[in-house]
Amino acid sequence: MKIMVIADEESKYLWNHFDKSKLDGADLIISCGDLDPRYLSFLVTLSAVPVLYVHGNHDGKYEQIPPEGCTCIEDEIYEYEGIRILGLGGSMRYTGGAHQYTEKEMQKRVRKLRWKLWRKKGFDILVTHAPAYQLNDGRDLPHQGFKVFRDLMEKYRPRFFLHGHVHMNYGRNQKRYDRYQDTHVINGFERYVFEFGEVSNERRKK
After folding, report:
1. Segment holding 15, helix H or strand E
2. Shortest CA distance to 116 belongs to which of 74, 145, 162, 160?
3. Per-residue model confidence as pLDDT tens digits over 144-193
4. pLDDT: which is higher, 176 or 125
């Protein structure tokens, strides 16, 4: 399965000069936040594939202009074609605005998912807006990652961790790809396509 991950900056390649062939082969689109809701609606309308999303710290406008036809996976384990996708949007709290959390508040969100995590036997993809602590994050509070995301990867060993928030144009040291233990970490800034592969029976039994 080919998955397109998008975040933070609308792709001019897709939006300004759209051609359906540019999305050929994409089976699923996942937004890691901070994108114009009309951009998500545009993609789901013209691509004919599901568009899933979590909120970024600048997505307060989604309350007034929700992305039509798209699926919010905040605090859910959404299953698509056998792939379990956990969504936890938002960033570290720095102004008190919408979709901002302290570390303790994010930990509380994760604790509330215990039953869903047990029932689904974990998850295959973690989708967030902010990165994990000291894993491609920033040292300033607004761009600092969450420690609990590392805890989730250590415990459940998802195959992929998708995030945004840390723009690729912030500096030379910003990575598109990294790895943490068994998990492939992808920064979804603007757009990136990757191959998920089949979900093995062994992994599903864990």
Report:
1. helix 12-15
2. 74
3. 999 999 999 999 999 999 999 998 776 657 788 999 999 999 999 999 99
4. 125
Instruction: Give the pLDDT confidence score for residue 81 in this predicted structure.
Output: 94
Give first-to-last CA distance, the chain, whole Å: 21
Is pLDDT of 136 > 70?
yes
Write out the two tokens for 113.
Answer: 């998912």
Q: Is the pTM of this model over 0.70?
A: yes
Burial class of residue 50, CB neighbours in 10 A (0-12, 13-18, 19+):
middle
Radius of gyration of the chain (CA): 16
Q: Are 48 and 24 in contact (CB under 8 A)?
A: no
Note the maximum CA span of the chain.
Answer: 44
Residue 138, classed as helix, strand or coil, is: coil
Q: HSE, CB side, 13 Å, CA atoms: give it for residue 58.
A: 13
Amino acid at 187: N
Take residue 31 and report the two structure tokens written for it.
């937004």
Identity (one letter) of the amino acid at 80?
Y
Torsion over CA of 53, 54, 55 and 61, rounded to 10 degrees?
Answer: 30
Count other C-beta atoms under 10 Å from residue 197's C-beta.
9
What does the block give as tokens for 46?
Answer: 């013209």
For the four alpha carbons of 18, 60, 32 and 2, in that order, the dihedral sign comes to negative
Q: Report the alpha-carbon distance of residue 183 to residue 178 in Å, rounded.
A: 9
